[in-house]
Amino acid sequence: MTILVAGGGIAGLAFALTCHEIGEEVQVFEAASEIKPLGVGINLQPNAIRELYQLGLEQDLREIGTEAEEWALFYYGAHPVWTEPRGTLAGYNWPQFSVHRGQFQLKLLTAVRERLGDAAVISDASLVRYEHIDDQIIAHFTNAAGESFSKKGDLLVGADGIHSNVRHQMYPDQGSVHWNGAIMWRGVSRCVPPRTKNSFVMVGGMEQRFVCYPVEPLDKNGETLLNWIAELRPQDQQEVNQSDWNKPAQAATFMHKFQDWRFDWLDVPEIVSRAEGIWEYPMVDRDPVERWTDGRAVLIGDAAHAMYPHGSNGATQGIVDTRVLGAAIKEHGLSTAALAQYEARQLGPINELLMRARGEGPIGVLIDIEKRLSEGKTLAEAIDRHEVETFMARYKQAAGFDRDTLNASQQIVQV
Ligand SMILES: Cc1cc2nc3c(=O)[nH]c(=O)nc-3n(C[C@H](O)[C@H](O)[C@H](O)COP(=O)(O)OP(=O)(O)OC[C@H]3O[C@@H](n4cnc5c(N)ncnc54)[C@H](O)[C@@H]3O)c2cc1C
Description:
With 415 residues, the protein is an alpha/beta fold. Helix content is 34%, strand content 27%. Strands 6-5-14-15-16-13-17 form a seven-stranded mixed sheet. It has a six-stranded mixed sheet with strand order 8-2-1-12-19-18. The site of flavin-adenine dinucleotide (FAD) has 32 residues, from α1, β9, α8 and α9.
């Protein structure tokens, strides 16, 4: 009885650990010939941290990441729209962690290899297609040398990201990714963090924004590895049909728009000038779909619901998927009933979250603020604190990390 997983990213590896926890045999097939620490920063919300702690990964998170203390939104330079504590400082039972995506993926990989053995993760194995035969599913793979091989299993979990082949087989006509016209330039720079030792800071408006937060604890000089994203909506929009997380970029492409973003508490040109590397990525997601299952195949993570990253939800929701699916398998075994239960619990709320992210997610408040400014209101008049508070509370509820609900809820996987 085996579960096959296509994709050894965050969701695929977290799912392998969940399978180990519930006593199911699993094998992960990753297209890359070697899993390298790619990507820059991501945030893991308390609803994902609870699951990672249950998987015994607290120490790993502390070694590579840092607890978020604050979330702060500024309307351009100096005008706070909203600041709030995060994680345990906000009364959650679990912290919010900021981590380097690649380092986190390597920690998951190490844990999988230690617990399940080296053979549990097969690299250079790209899923091409699947087929059902009797009560089983056959996954067909290819490698970089062009060789093909197949593997039979009881379930196939598509954790193969935004360009998922599993999803493509389920939805051959889905078309290209959906782009909102914005580009994000991303990097990490060693510098003193703004505000607290770990504030998630977002500065700007609807046309232009800068986001930064540390992904490591402070070093002895009081500096950290600061993850940053400069986001612009270019005027000369072209079609984006693909998206590559590893596309290198130059600061000159966007910095002319941020040159005077030097405030007494945040110096954007200085941060960007210290970048160890810069990558660009379009603001893309995929349209929600009505099913994540096809017989014995099921989608999780970005393969199921790639969404805009401004809510810090990609990795978090991928991890929660793995736990809901694990709980369903524990209850119903390696069956289509398990997949149906997972889909019934996750698909509706996560598709709604995807659409909220498309509507700018937690920064959607800026839309109303800019509307009021265009009507002649002053900034102080345009920012309605009660409205922002309500908006933020609704967002957390939708994203599954409303504090009181989460603190009071039962663990997803009962062991
Ligand atoms: C290289 C990379 C860098 C990223 N950087 C960032 C970042 O800086 N910030 C951010 O917010 N998000 C980033 N992401 C996306 C983020 O990791 C996801 O949104 C989130 O963690 C959900 O994870 P996932 O496992 O569903 O997808 P992913 O993390 O994208 O993992 C998918 C995995 O599947 C593998 N794969 C793809 N196709 C196949 C196939 N046909 N067969 C087998 N394996 C396949 C990929 O190589 C990858 O390892 C990055 C993703 C990747 C792959």
